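Query structure, 282 tokens:
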């Protein structure tokens, strides 16, 4: 695996790879790699001739009161993990190269970012779309893979790619969970043992919602009440949002008449976790 830190070198590699007729798969990450990332990377390796993975903790997607400083960083173990996967390129750029002094251009997707994480994290999506656009411009992939755990992020990225006529396919991959249902996330590294135990309540709450719908419940209010009850049974949890919404527009629903996205953001101690599930008639 080749490690590239320079933007120019990364662009050169992409140009050369494309000129040789080879396809490029790309996985953008903020590091502290887990099975969720690995499922994206393995798919890219299986489907594309070459795979580039980026590791960059993007400061513009964090508000000043958020966890940029405490976001887990494990670059040495990440390199070792990537070596074992067959990844061709690790792109590990510097902050000053990606955001030089006087940087002043941001990309914003409008409507879809006014809900869920966009409400509780006002800078988040602007930062994500800006860095993803930059990384795609630099790595120039044929296909970029993103996880469905960040469902809204994936939809926002799809919208940006469509609206800006970008020449890349965006592929989403299902959430990877541990044996107890906890969705894989780099932020899980910041949970204590007892917090990790409490964090399982997110997937349990989603399962309880699914079970209600299977039993015939159609009222979103009743489903939300059940989710709230399940989460609040665990000490140390603080609900940020419980949303039962349209999976593409994110508008809240009142009745389950079609497929809906049930999305949660919950604080476990000081760590904010998200999870989601598609439920309802398909
Ligand atoms: O999902 C993430 O890890 C980040 O939001 C991303 C897409 C790498 C952009 O920084």
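Result returned for the query:
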């Amino acid at each position: 695996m080749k490690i590239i830190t320079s933007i120019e070198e990364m662009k050169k590699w992409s140009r050369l790879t494309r000129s040789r007729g080879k396809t490029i798969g790309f996985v953008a990450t903020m590091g502290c790699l887990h099975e969720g990332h690995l499922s994206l990377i393995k798919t890219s390796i299986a489907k594309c001739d070459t795979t580039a993975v980026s590791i960059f903790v993007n400061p513009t997607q964090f508000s000043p009161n958020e966890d940029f400083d405490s976001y887990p960083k494990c670059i040495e173990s990440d390199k070792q993990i990537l070596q074992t996967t067959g990844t061709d390129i690790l792109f590990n750029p510097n902050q000053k190269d990606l955001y030089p002094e006087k940087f002043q251009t941001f990309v914003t997707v409008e409507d879809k970012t006014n809900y869920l994480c966009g409400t509780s994290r006002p800078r988040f999506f602007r930062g994500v779309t800006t860095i993803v656009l930059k990384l795609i411009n630099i790595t120039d992939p044929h296909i970029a893979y993103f996880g469905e755990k960040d469902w809204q992020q994936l939809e926002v990225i799809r919208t940006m790619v469509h609206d800006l006529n970008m020449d890349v396919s965006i592929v989403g991959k299902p959430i990877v969970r541990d044996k107890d249902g906890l969705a894989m996330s780099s932020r899980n590294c910041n949970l204590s043992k007892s917090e990790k135990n409490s964090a399982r309540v997110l997937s349990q709450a989603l399962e309880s919602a699914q079970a209600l719908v299977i039993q015939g419940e159609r009222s979103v209010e009743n489903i939300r009440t059940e989710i709230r009850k399940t989460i609040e049974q665990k000490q140390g949890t603080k609900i940020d949002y419980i949303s039962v919404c349209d999976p593409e527009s994110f508008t809240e629903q009142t009745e389950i008449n079609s497929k809906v996205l049930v999305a949660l953001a919950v604080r476990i101690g000081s760590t904010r976790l998200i999870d989601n599930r598609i439920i309802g008639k398909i």
